[in-house]
Amino acid sequence: MLPYVLLGLVLVFVIVVLMKTVRIVPQARAGVVERFGKYKQTLPAGLNVVVPFIDRVRYLIDLREQVVSFPPQPVITEDNLVVSIDTVIYFQVTDPVAATYEIANYIQAVEQLTMTTLRNIVGGMDLEDTLTSREEINGGLRGVLDEATGKWGIRVNRVEIKGIDPPPSIKDAMEKQMRADRDKRALVLQAEGQRQSAILTAEGNKQSAILNAEGERESQILRAQADREAAILRAQGEGQAIQTVFQAIHDGRPDQSLLAYQYLQMMPKIAEGDANKLWIVPSEIGKALEGLGSTMSELTGIPQDASPVKRVDMGPSEPQLPRSSAESAHAAAADAIAEAKGLAQQPPVAPTSGAPEATSSQAPADPVDGDEGPRLQ
């Protein structure tokens, strides 16, 4: 029985010795070995053999990059305003021995160093700079922490500020200021829009007025040209009508009997009209009848000489419209009218036939309702 007990004790001792001799270190870890309380070596990741009951793995250090978030810290700015700032630090242990023996708790040390450094940096800034200078604050914190933690075997990779919270009263004031700035910008944009609208409207009215004036000017010019051409055409038409009548009179060679007959035909027209209640027969009507009766047998008024009559030059049948200028048009019209009047005032051609010439006597006719009666020749 006793040998079995001894064998069992030996097996247990061997197992314990093996457990104390073989140490397995996980990946990205480092084991700090002490012999009799003094640093002996650093065990890398993997299977390691130590002296049992003499060597002891005191610390197992994590070599990975670690993230530590610190709670919000009250910080006073240069303009005596208290803001709460919470930070995040990314660091990594580069020397396990220094991290073990140079500092008791490197995480707490980094937190306190971050707090003091942050107060020093923000204390030299006002609130506006603090809210808008996060990159500057992050750079300052990283430089100070990296320099201070180098001897601790720690490398600070990044420092980030999670949030900067001013007091509630400052938040309200900032919100009011932002709202006022937005209202101001809105009013400025609205006024700018109204100004642009007024400018564009004025430009449109200006262009419209210019176009209307140009259209009115062109229409007046066209109306004036039309009136000028119409006046020229009317004057030329009147001149040609006068020339035609005058030529017809000369071609017919009228005598006294024809004129007396025409005078008698005009008598009923003189009596026409609602206002004519009293009609006075002129004294020349007896003489006109005598001349008409004495010459009726000879067909008075018909020329007996069939010889060709020299005709008056009537000018072009179509009216010629000058297109040079308004002065030449008016001058041409005036010349045509003067020529027609001059031809009308020439004495009639004496008849060549043997028809007797009736003596004419001129006597004023009695007025009929204010109108002057015709005269016989």
UniProtKB/TrEMBL annotation:
It is found in: Membrane. The keyword Transmembrane helix applies. It holds the Pfam family Band_7. It is a single-pass membrane protein. It comes from the Bacteria. Residues 20-178 form the Band domain. CDD domains: SPFH_paraslipin. Residues 324-340 have a biased composition (Low complexity). Keywords: Membrane, Transmembrane, Transmembrane helix. Residues 300-377 are annotated as: Disordered. Belongs to the band 7/mec-2 family. This is Paraslipin. It comes from Nocardioides daphniae. The lineage of its organism: Bacteria, Bacillati, Actinomycetota, Actinomycetes, Propionibacteriales.
